[in-house]
Design a protein that fits this description.
With 130 residues, this protein is mostly helical. It has one domain: c-terminal domain of poly(a) binding protein (Orthogonal Bundle), CATH 1.10.1900. The chain is built from seven helices and no strands. Helix 3 packs antiparallel against helix 4. The termini are far apart. The model has no long low-confidence stretch (mean pLDDT 84). It comes from Planotetraspora mira. It holds the Pfam family DUF1048. InterPro entries: UCP029876. This is DUF1048 domain-containing protein.
């Protein structure tokens, strides 16, 4: 009987993950958010702003996105612990900082996929007519 119950849980979890995504990813994201909540207010506000920007332009794959966010949290935790001012972390241009940070995580970026799709489409039509 216990295997039947476990089997039902397993099927339920598979269905749930199919609908909502892997539960492990959700756990990692919650841990990341908990870490950022522990930061001093100004660091917390800054990392939230960066996260919002990076969610639009960053990796589309959960693993890559979570790795990027965890690395960002590491950077801000270390900076807060060392008393490094936020401007010393992000520089005078926060957009350039975000763009440079994002370049370290090219895997899964939607823009990379779209660039590849465009190049492939042009290659297909030019190969046919060459």
């Amino acid at each position: 009987m216990a295997t039947e119950s476990n089997e039902q849980k397993s099927r339920y979890r598979q269905y749930l993950e199919m609908v909502t995504g892997p539960l492990e990813d959700k756990r990692r994201y919650r841990q990341y958010k908990a870490r950022t909540e522990q930061l001093p207010a100004s660091y917390h506000t800054a990392i939230d702003a960066l996260q919002r920007y990076m969610m639009f332009f960053g990796p589309g794959k959960a693993d890559s996105l979570l790795a990027m966010l965890e690395d960002l949290a590491d950077l801000f935790e270390q900076s807060a612990a060392n008393g490094t001012p936020i401007r010393a972390v992000v520089g005078e241009d926060p957009v350039e900082f975000a763009e440079a940070f994002l370049r370290n995580y090219p895997e899964g970026q939607w823009i990379s996929r779209e660039r590849e799709r465009l190049a492939n489409a042009i290659d297909r039509v030019t190969d046919d007519k060459s």
